[in-house]
Design brief:
The protein is elongated, with a radius of gyration of 21 Å. It has twelve helices and nine strands. By secondary structure, the protein is of the alpha/beta class.
């Protein structure tokens, strides 16, 4: 088997700083990530950041279909060369943040699995992009910056718990699978990496009256982390029609002490408060 380093050397690949490229070159880690995706012969897999196609091959040996997404046009020819033996691989040259998961799900008449090595500069936008397509995505296995994974899987009361934690965990069951040493990459990045695995729920953890409103509430609650929840909500634009007394009343009915900080609220508490506030706004007394 040709190693990742040999492929890079053969095609004279120079990592792009602009694209935050760092190639995963440790073969054992590549196999481990692919295995963590639990790909079956029935699966349609979207691979993010196919690079030079080493992990793509691993996935393609099992999957029904692989859509290998790569933003760097300079790597497409390499992918075509490396993946020529796999008729079940479609190479997609483009930005994953503009990728239409619903279109591919419809084309292959199945929900998708997502696996990939995500460029660290698009970690948060990508998570929100996946969330917007969660109805057509079954699960995901992603390599992200270790610090980002810590935030995404963090429980309430933890310093890493924040907006991404709440929004992702409301719609997905997530877990940190394992860490990846910086020495597994070329060039060696300055940050550590971790693998996160997640399964999108059929329904949110809490039934929500309005998901957009819920998202706004979560963001407002963390607007200033050190402030009490009451103060953050009083300053929220989308709640400006409510008086301070109305907000305090809603908190009371949700069983939440307004003196608490947003970082202490559980997902059920956020969901309950969102529904009460939404109801009060649409049904003023």
């Amino acid at each position: 088997m040709t190693t990742p380093r040999e492929i890079l050397k053969r095609f004279n690949v120079r990592p792009s700083k602009k694209l935050s490229q760092s190639f995963l070159v440790d073969v054992n880690t590549i196999h481990k990530i692919a295995a963590a995706g639990h790909v079956t012969s029935e699966d349609v897999v979207v691979e993010i950041g196919a690079g030079i196609g080493v992990m793509t091959k691993d996935i393609a040996r099992t999957a029904r279909q692989v859509i290998a997404v790569e933003i760097d046009p300079g790597l497409i020819e390499i992918l075509q060369d490396q993946l020529a033996e796999f008729p079940n691989v479609e190479i997609y040259s483009g930005d994953i943040l503009k990728f239409d998961f619903a279109l591919k799900s419809s084309q292959y008449k199945d929900k998708l699995k997502v696996i990939g090595n995500v460029p660290y500069n698009i970690s948060s936008p990508l998570i929100f992009h996946l969330l917007s397509y969660r109805s057509v995505i079954n699960n995901f296995t992603l390599m992200l910056q270790k610090e980002v994974v810590e935030r995404l899987v963090s429980p309430p009361g933890n310093k890493h718990y924040g907006v991404p934690s709440v929004l992702l965990q409301m719609y997905a069951d997530v877990q940190r699978l394992f860490d990846v040493s910086a020495t597994c990459f070329y060039p060696v990045p300055k940050v550590a990496s971790s693998i996160i695995g997640g399964v999108f729920r059929e329904k949110p953890l809490v039934e929500l009256m309005d998901e957009v409103f819920f998202s706004r509430l979560v963001k407002a609650s963390f607007a200033q982390r050190r402030k009490m929840l009451t103060n953050n909500l009083k300053n929220a634009k989308f709640l400006e029609e409510m008086s301070d007394a109305d907000i305090m009343s809603a908190l009371h009915d949700a069983g939440i002490d307004g003196k608490r900080r947003g970082e202490t609220l559980s997902l059920p508490e956020f969901g309950r408060l969102s529904n009460i506030l939404k109801y009060r706004l649409t049904n003023p007394r």
